[in-house]
Amino acid sequence: MESARAKQFLNLDGKPILALTLEPFQESTVAAIILVVPSDDVEYCKKEIVERFGLTKVKKIVPGGKRRQDSVRLGLEATGGKYDLVLIHDGVRPLIEKGLIERVIKEAMVNRAVITALPAKETVKEVNDLRHVEKTYDRERVWMVQTPQAFRYQDILKAHQKALEEGWEEATDDALLVEKSGVTIKVVEGSEKNIKVTTPHDLELARLLLRS
Questions:
Q1: Whole-prediction pTM value?
Q2: Is 87 helix (H, G, I), strand (E, B) or coil?
Q3: On the CB side of 32, how many CA atoms lie within 13 Å of its CA?
Q4: Who's near 70: CB < 8 A, 6+ residues apart?
Q5: What tens digit of pLDDT does each residue of 41-71 get?
Q6: Distance between CA atoms of 135 and 95, rounded to whole angstroms?
Q7: Most exposed: 54, 91, 118, 168, by fewest CB within 10 Å?
Q8: Above 70 in pLDDT, residue 190?
């Protein structure tokens, strides 16, 4: 992101990205929010994000781990098993809409695991270390995964605990861990606006989408 500040705290038209991300969840039927952030940012998030923007559904702010999957596991454990259904969402997807959150929750009531994704618009190829093409995928069967992702609490917790115990490599997608447990994953079509802000270009695109 070419910034000294963590990307989730960068300003996006007057608000931190993280605040914009949390607001639709605050307005949704989600019962509680567990916010996982770098340990040095816990107090900042409490005062400048949660209290400042009235995010009353944030029940806990938890220091994250070294890897993404460590942070997710810590967030799951922080719920204390109080909730049967959990949604996991990237803090830097600030254009998530309440309607999509509710659709995911509705599908999760009848499916054990649900992810949001978009059908691929371009051809996807697998390459080796030399960037030589090894495989071309059928675009009609390829979907680009987003968040939120919804799981039964026990399914996702056990999947993360098993990944830790068996030393699985870092998983950038929580559904992958649940897939390995044999659980069928349901796909809900996401939104083209639901972008992940990881580069300066993404930040500019998010600004344009927000204004529109």
A1: 0.93
A2: strand
A3: 15
A4: 64, 164
A5: 999 999 999 999 999 999 999 999 998 899 9
A6: 33
A7: 54
A8: yes
